[in-house]
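Example 3.2
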Amino acid sequence: MKDLVPLQDLMADSTEMLPKQKNKVHPQEIRKELWQLNQGITHIEKCCAFASWTKDNIHKKECCFFEKGVREDVCKCGYSKTNHVDETIKPEDFMGESWDRHRHVREVPTDAFGDISFGGLGQKTGKYVRVSTDTSPELLYRLLTEQWELSPPNLLISVTGGAKNFYLKAHLKNMFHRGLIKVAQTTGAWIISGGMHTGVMKHVGQAVRDHALSSAMQGQIVAIGVATWGTIHNREALVHSEGCFPAHYLMDVESQGRLSCLDNNHTHFLLVDDGTQGQYGVEIELRSHLEKCISGKHLGNEESHVTIPVVCVVLDGGPGTLNTIYNAMLNGTPCVILEGSGRIADVIAQVAGLPLTRVTIALIHQLMKKFFGQEYEKFRDLEIIEWTKKIQDIIRMSHLLTIFRTGEDNHRDVDVAILQALLKASRSSESLGIECWKRQLELAIAWNRVDIAETEIFTEESQWKSSDLHWAMFSALVGNKPLFVSLLLENGVSLRDFLQDETTLCKLYKWLPSCSFLRCSRKKAFPIKSRAHSVQGEMISMTHVSDEVRHLLGSYTQALYPPSKMTNHFNMSMETSVSLSQSPTSSQAPLREDVAAQRDPGRDLFLWAVVQNNKELAEIAWEQCRDCMSAALAASKILKTMAEEGSDADEAEDMQELANHYEKHAIGVFSECHNSDEERAQKLLVRVSPFWGRTTCLRLALEADDKSFVAQSGVQALLTQIWCGELSVINPVWRVLICMVFFPLIYNDFLVFRRDEVIQRDAAKNKEIKTVTGSTLQRNSHGSDPSRVWHPKRLDSWSRLVYLYSSPQVKFYWNIVSYFAFLFLFAVVLMIDFQATPSAGEVLLYIWLFSLVCEEVRQLFYDPDGFGFRKKARMYINDLWNIFDVLSILLFVIGLAFRLTTELFYVGKILLCIDFVVFCLRLMAIFTISRTLGPKIIIVRKMMMDMFFFMFLLSIWVVAYGVAKQGILIHNDNRLDWIVRGAIYEPYLIIFGNFPTNIDYAAFDINSCSMNGTDPLKPKCPVLNENQTPAFPEWLTIIMLCIYLLFANILLLNLLIAIFNFTFQEVQDNTDRIWKFQRYELIKEYHSRPAAPPPFIIFSHLYLFIRNIVLCRPPIISKEFKSELPQMEEEELLSWEALMKDRYLLSTQQEQSQSMERRILDTAQMVTTLTDRLEREDETSSAAMVQRLARIEEQVDQSAKALQWIMDSLKSQGFAAKETQPLTLTTTDESPDIYTSEKEDGFHVNARQFHYPNSKVKRFPVPEEKVPWEVSFSSYIPAYYASEDSEDHVDGSESEALDNYRNPAGRTGIRGRGALSHLGPNLNADFVLTRWRDCERSVLEYLVVWDESQGTLALPGRPVQSADHTPLIRTLGKKLYEEIHAKVSEGTKVFEGYVDDCRNTDNAWVETTVLNIHLATTSQMMEDINSMVASSHGALQWQEVSGKTRLSSNQRDSLRKVAELHNRKF
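Structure, written as tokens:
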């Protein structure tokens, strides 16, 4: 018991996590240790809760009666005497009852559960629990999903096969490992096996181990081992009444004997206990029940109509494995058998492709001997017969059987074979059509296997409509399966149809995973619930989404979705959304209609993906957006805002990365547009986007701080064009400056206007057209209507003058001149004309400053983009130059106030002088427009920040040296100014070369200092000796000065230079981009600025005040930064943008495909494929040759035997050959059985099922070849069975009576009446009641009833020989039954004869007569049936006559004949 760690010891261990008391403990270490302690406490709480739940719900079994077995100290249960409690041990002379497993084994709370830790490398851990064989599978499922917190599986893979170690070829082994793990990981499957370290279970564990060691594949694989407790070696280490957390389990394979060790690569163990020891196979029944329980659970969520699929994978195996395969396929579980794995798997693989007539007992004998070797000698003939029958039944269920052959191209990987087997099983004949494809598609989506969907589902056979795939699209989006989203879009899903209903979009936001958008919405009291806490009927409205998106984009945008009346807890049900959209009284109705008309489904889906930071889905949706450039820039803004507001650093980094990704997308699309057509590209920048809050691409880029986008040449060309106004951008600056003074020059083309360029361009185009087309086109152009063509006219004189002085460029130059004049006037007033009474120049200065103040106020309140005052004020303060403006104005006002008083006159002048410095620094703003100096200002700002932090480091040395020097030289100087001078100022000056003279004896002058410090103009003298010389140690002060100079002058100053150099190198590459970005604000400022410079600008301000405030006229909106395009031009521009986007994506794909990394990956993949193909060919070539030779030998043998039979037939001169033929042909498995081939279709199948229905009787196995009575079957000894409900009571010994009745279809494997009423034929009548659904006779329908005994739908019928028709009367009603009975004579006989019924025996069988009674739509009987159908609650149904019907095979055949009778396609 030394290897286990009980629960109570965990608390003692957890105290080790407490921080030890040391002299010094780093705070980071304390936080880390506290976090570890918190994790330990949480783990202990979970362990305590799990232990309590386990002891209350899980039980084990133990023997309660000791009886000697083979050995005296061992009970018949297999456990030793010491493992029994005293009360179970009876006296030696006890003569009572003998030991019985069912009566002497009891359930008690389990004592083995917790965590299991395996030794060796990796320290693998898992979870385990010891359970009783009678444990409810539902309880085990709760244990797995709730206590062990496993996610419900999307697929259950049950691996079975050989329990002993067997050899598996290297290639097949690798394929099995790789395929099993791939299918488990991609589909989220659970793998269930026996859990032991032997046989196929060991291979499963090795596959899990290989996955764990692979760094390329992530995510834990769930491998559940269901093992027998009594066969586990070293199981004592797992036992403790309070649980083991963990239990240290030792794998000792060498000394395990008949027992087996647990596999250390499985993750969870269910150890099944029946109270015995050493008995294998105890877990089989509970494992099958657990698998059946899991297969009944809904896939994904309760709304899904598909249950969790189960597949059985078989390697090797013996007779027990054959039983497992057979029972699994009877339960509808598909099986995948790996050919080449050995024994029973290879036997089934060999006969799987053969017709049933060739799968004979002799062939199975031959294959058993071949693949089982010496083990074959132990098999009895009766067992071979039974196995032959089971193998035939397995082959007959071909839709559930898949053989994985390594040499076939259609099964390249095991994972594909497993998933194809499940899809093949779902394509049963009872579920054809679109429903079958839907179920398969739902499985493929749950597995996230788009490759399976492409090859198996989206084929030419399946015809899909967009509406048929909407549920799949929703599932793929919610499940975050981008590949499926792309596949669905490629196969006909229309986003417009999918998102046409607003409810769908609301549901998508309801299912948002936990993300920053969700958390922000919760903070704003949005009624959003996460997926785990969602409540029915509680959803988010699109109004709330619009508000949150507007918050992320900025208040300058308009709502993306129409506002609704309800603002809190808006339930977006179908009825609500319809009623709101149709409300005629809503004041927002026009707006809602306008927004609905402008809805872009690509935008809606893209926004949904962006707010959850989902790159893959966002990429797909972006390709579907109409306004793709605005969408990319809006995504950049949204993601950056969410990153700023988020608390998770990793998530914020991912958002920032995705924002940069979409900025690159916007740059790529705009570059394509600009290269194609510059004019259209510029329109895209400033056009109002109706899909993104009626803002522009340029505004979105600026708000998102997308400097790289703004720095694009096309964007800068637009800004330059706006900067020049109506002047041409080709005008040199000197010409503009000259015309500013000598404006008459503009009338003789000294300056070029944009209108002149347009006229010249049009003239050149017309000339080119005339040259190309000749006079014909010229005559046509003269004949056209000139009023319909707009021709630009030359500007008149006044317009040229207005355009010159309203150009932002000219405004800027005039303001520079004005600012220099202002500084000149300011300097003159401060230095020359600063009188007690303000002079005329000083008054002019005040007026000038007032005009500047008015301009700053105008800039603060001017809001053409609709930011709002709060955001506008924040933007104003964030600008450095505006801070200089505010600071200079405040200093000027304070200085002016002081200057006007007598007491503070000089102080006021000082403040004004300081203010002049600020005004001069503000002058640097004029250089921001310069391409040369503008970036340098940015570098200066960065260096100032570096220098600011450097001064902290320098101050340490300055203060350290200064205080030490002052303390050594001067004794108790109490003058603060001289203290600061000596301790800080003088050391600071030393850095710049001003060396002190008072630290050296030679330079000391006693007249330059004051002895007692009484002279305020002289420093205090240092401490003197008796001879009036300094007493301080000269050598020390000199050494201190040298060290100080070494570090301060050489080290620190050079460090500062290095920092500046690094900053320059780092910022130099980005300065141009930053300058281009900041250039926009300057251009926009001067674009909106009045034309007159200060101080004349005061008149413009007065005009604006009267116009906007007094007259309340709307402001003039400029179209240079924001323009509204007509509808037709808007559509044309968006179509052109979409074309450019496609070009950009194509070029991006080409670049990626031609990149070196991609080429390396493609080459590696090709090499891997070639290697696999060569290995496969090497392994299969020899086997294929041997197989071909064997076939040739068999064909030669058959030919010889056929010739011998012909010769014997000719010699006999009669028909004796017919008798000898079967005897001759039974000697070989490949010989053609003429009788069998003729009767193959007539052999009953249901009548030979092993288990007789509603009983515990088992049929004698009857292989296909032994069904006819004419074929000898000497070992045929069927059991006798007659149910108590039968009317004939004949003893089993009365065989003479039974011999009078023989099943005409052949042997069934059971004698007697079985569950039938009579010996011999039991006649039955089935009625097919048909009608036309409508007057056009387009659809033929039939009446079907619910068969309670079988739990299926069936045709209404009754036994002919029995007078008890109560079940049919109870279903149809007495009146309706009598009406149908009266119509029997009018019915058409469809079929009459033997029915392959599971109740048939050798002496009793079912024969039926099927009648078709067609009813007129207007008959009274039809009205009675319809009323019964309406009140039957599903017991009676009208269904269409088609191949999709779910009836038994016999009744389906009858229904097919009814369809042919009425000329309907079945």
